[in-house]
Design goal:
Helix content is 21%, strand content 29%. By secondary structure, it is an alpha+beta fold. Helix 1 (16-27) packs across helix 7 (183-192) and helix 3 runs antiparallel to helix 4 (101-110).
């Protein structure tokens, strides 16, 4: 009697990574279907400033599905994407923070409505072209299964940073076939399988959206407001159009020239003042510690603190040694959002070496060697 093949629905983006993901799963004997997610359709000229590659990506996804002989469905999660990713982006910038929408794109779209869509249609798993690994282990005593999110084997492509908000339940339904490969090997596999996307360049910009003329895009909801640019010595050296449009560590686009370049080191929202320092080694650019909120642990269990581990404060940064400590709770930050498995208390992260341009709104992601432990939002 033949056993029923396990069904996998792949998020086929029209890129080489998800294309090879489909091919590998077919080779491994799974019943494979694919979904092309249609999550961003510009509704105005301003939204059109985002160079959206939607049509060409959908065309490539259809071509790859045809080559592999698998069913492709085109599904829109635009309502969720606009609400949970794009609105979030605007809200964060409005509050003076610099968000990373790609993290939310994964946690709020790919591993929520897309995963739910797949499970409702009888899938055992979903798969994506992420460069990460999923390790399953079983407790001998309790016979319970748990999962770990591991870095991809290619250190230049590891994407665990973007997936730190994933849960145990979600991991139990996830496959990441290319996490075991380096990018050049994935290209070689695409050639081997004769896939149309074998030489297609990697996508750039925001997840599902593309390259962004960010300042102009933000101005459709956040209006310019002239304010002063001041140095760390409180000397006015220019004007800006609103602190919301700048980020910590930014050099280009400040509009102050002459001699050694200036870098943004702080933003005073109340007075609409942009504080800058001269040179990229100014001590105002560096901090030894930071606070992190909205903590999520992938294991769903907070580790024993203080914890010595490593952290990334931005994607592609090397691991930075640190110690995580509990921050004394207050009435406003001691509760727990059990629905989201996110703790609202604060953690203090103390670095071994001072870090440059720690940016509120970005995400801090914690690691123990190759294991992604979780993370939170820098405040």
């Amino acid at each position: 009697m033949l056993l029923k093949k396990e069904k996998v629905i792949v998020a086929l983006s029209g890129g080489v990574d998800s294309s090879v993901t489909c091919a590998l799963l077919l080779e491994q004997g799974y019943q494979v279907e694919a979904v092309f997610m249609k999550n961003w359709t510009p509704r105005s000229t301003a939204e059109g400033l985002l160079m959206c590659p939607l049509n060409s990506d959908e065309k490539d996804a259809r071509l790859v599905a045809s080559q592999l002989g698998i069913k492709l469905s085109v599904v829109s999660f635009e309502k969720e994407y606009r609400r949970d990713v794009v609105d979030y982006l605007f809200n964060e910038y409005q509050e003076g923070r610099t968000p990373n929408p790609d993290v939310l794109c994964n946690s709020q779209v790919k591993f929520k409505p897309f995963l739910n869509y797949a499970l409702e249609r009888g899938a055992d798993f979903v798969a994506t072209g992420h460069y990460v690994r999923n390790k399953q282990s079983t407790s001998d005593k309790k016979q319970s299964v748990s999962y770990q999110l591991l870095k991809g084997l290619d250190p230049n492509k590891d994407q665990s940073y973007f997936l730190y908000q994933i849960t145990q339940e979600q991991l139990s339904h996830c496959l990441f076939p290319i996490g075991e490969y380096a990018k050049p090997a994935v290209r070689q596999l695409a050639d081997k399988y004769g896939l149309a996307t074998a030489k297609k360049p990697d996508s750039q910009g925001i997840c599902f959206v593309g390259e962004v003329a960010m300042k102009e895009f933000l101005q459709q909801r956040i209006k310019p407001q002239i304010g002063d640019i001041v140095t760390t010595e409180n000397k006015k050296i220019g004007v800006h159009e609103g602190v919301w449009f700048y980020t910590i560590g930014q050099r280009k686009g400040i509009g102050v020239g002459g001699g050694m370049p200036y870098y943004v080191v702080d933003k005073d929202l109340t007075a609409n003042r942009l504080i800058v320092a001269r040179g990229d080694q100014d001590e105002a650019l560096f901090k030894q510690e930071m606070l992190v909120s909205e903590i999520h642990w992938i294991s769903n269990q907070e580790p024993k603190l203080p914890l010595k581990c490593s952290v990334k404060i931005r994607y592609r940064q090397g691991d930075q040694e640190c110690v995580i400590e509990k921050q004394p709770s207050t009435a406003n930050n001691s509760q727990k959002n059990t629905k989201l498995q996110i703790s609202n208390h604060l953690l203090k992260v103390v670095f071994k070496e001072p870090q440059r341009a720690i940016t509120p709104g970005q995400f801090a992601v914690f690691y123990s060697d190759d294991v992604c432990l979780g993370g939170g939002k820098i405040i």
